[in-house]
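Example record for the data management plan.
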Amino acid sequence: MSSRLRQLSAYLAVFFLSSQLFATGPTVERIGPLSAPAASDDLQKAVEDKGYRVTLNDGWTADFWFSRALPAASQNSPGALYPSLANGEFVAIANFTKGASDYRGQAIPAGLYTLRYQYLPQDANHMGVSPNPDFLLAIPADADSPPAVNVPFRRLITSSAKSTGGSHPAVFAMAAAGTPATVSKDDQSMTVLTVEVPTSTPSKTEKLGIILKGQATQ
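Corresponding structural encoding:
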């Protein structure tokens, strides 16, 4: 085999290997405990000892640590996918190592954020915004209240707006949960991360679906 032919064969082998690597699809892997300068002792104690690292097809990646025990309660939230979650409740920590884009298409800079639950108000300003009224609002970790505190609506909106530097909060819509520790597309072509989180009820867990990629139509 000539030297030029060998070089061509080697090039093609690398090309096909690279194509296979990029075609493997999104991945979810378990990682170690939360350890970041912006994470207070309260935050580190509030989340599980193991987190999730999500990597999507386009190379976007982020780390998540979920609550060590979600409180078990039943809210009067018509149409909610997750009626056991309370407004303003701490749900998770997210480390957006490459930044993120929320459900409204707003840019969120790289950094560490808390994620708190909010049931979307069922009024004229919000009807039709999302198929489901369940949202997680991102707040810069160093600007949030302690995890044990459920943040009131107005303060939640104001605090979350610091994530984008605008007047609107940084919102991640929630969707029906799938298989835990996976990323999949739902029937709206949204990219959904599913996780299984412990609750305060012994031996009971809650599956959560969070839209990582995909935007509102209006």
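Summary line stored alongside the record: The first strand starts at residue 27 and ends at 31.
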